[in-house]
């Protein structure tokens, strides 16, 4: 698989598991090779919001998710929070693009301050230092001054802050339509094709 088809996706403990699963499905459908990181809190949220019990073992989680998305081991790889020898931990091997969806405000804070205590934080730090593309999808309300300051700091360093705030101009008829709105915006920013939602000013696509 070509290197430029690789992308790191991290799921953290903010509400918004349906966004993560839909994004993964769309990326895999476009033959992207996904290097997936799942925090412990994210597993709790996935169980709560999607009734999906993700095993703590990266190997078992990978097997479960490959079956769920009907993809092979080459297309979807899962790494544990302390797998420091994984490709995402080094600028010489990590994909140039990373999305944290959803992104908890604690993860956002850690990334803003370069903590790198977990593989998710380190992977984000690598993408930033290598001048890659990092997209964070926070889902929190209201936002405190600390949250806003962290977002501003990251934005000033070239990170895209894309709050999970779906629009309504596409006249959504279901929760899935709202989910697709956000995923479509993420795909747009990644430079990937999307037919999930019509763009502003355009009619329904056939």
TrEMBL record:
<feature type="binding site">
    <location>
        <begin position="13"/>
        <end position="15"/>
    </location>
    <ligand>
        <name>FMN</name>
    </ligand>
</feature>
<protein>
    <recommendedName>
        <fullName>Flavin prenyltransferase UbiX</fullName>
        <ecNumber>2.5.1.129</ecNumber>
    </recommendedName>
</protein>
<dbReference type="InterPro" id="IPR036551">
    <property type="entry name" value="Flavin_trans-like"/>
</dbReference>
<feature type="binding site">
    <location>
        <begin position="104"/>
        <end position="107"/>
    </location>
    <ligand>
        <name>FMN</name>
    </ligand>
</feature>
<dbReference type="InterPro" id="IPR003382">
    <property type="entry name" value="Flavoprotein"/>
</dbReference>
<feature type="binding site">
    <location>
        <position position="169"/>
    </location>
    <ligand>
        <name>dimethylallyl phosphate</name>
    </ligand>
</feature>
<keyword id="KW-0808">Transferase</keyword>
<feature type="domain" description="Flavoprotein">
    <location>
        <begin position="6"/>
        <end position="190"/>
    </location>
</feature>
<comment type="similarity">
    <text>Belongs to the UbiX/PAD1 family.</text>
</comment>
<feature type="binding site">
    <location>
        <position position="39"/>
    </location>
    <ligand>
        <name>FMN</name>
    </ligand>
</feature>
<feature type="binding site">
    <location>
        <position position="185"/>
    </location>
    <ligand>
        <name>dimethylallyl phosphate</name>
    </ligand>
</feature>
<keyword id="KW-0285">Flavoprotein</keyword>
<dbReference type="GO" id="GO:0016831">
    <property type="term" value="F:carboxy-lyase activity"/>
</dbReference>
<dbReference type="GO" id="GO:0106141">
    <property type="term" value="F:flavin prenyltransferase activity"/>
</dbReference>
<keyword id="KW-0637">Prenyltransferase</keyword>
<dbReference type="InterPro" id="IPR004507">
    <property type="entry name" value="UbiX-like"/>
</dbReference>
<feature type="binding site">
    <location>
        <position position="139"/>
    </location>
    <ligand>
        <name>FMN</name>
    </ligand>
</feature>
<comment type="function">
    <text>Flavin prenyltransferase that catalyzes the synthesis of the prenylated FMN cofactor (prenyl-FMN) for 4-hydroxy-3-polyprenylbenzoic acid decarboxylase UbiD. The prenyltransferase is metal-independent and links a dimethylallyl moiety from dimethylallyl monophosphate (DMAP) to the flavin N5 and C6 atoms of FMN.</text>
</comment>
<dbReference type="Pfam" id="PF02441">
    <property type="entry name" value="Flavoprotein"/>
</dbReference>
<keyword id="KW-0288">FMN</keyword>
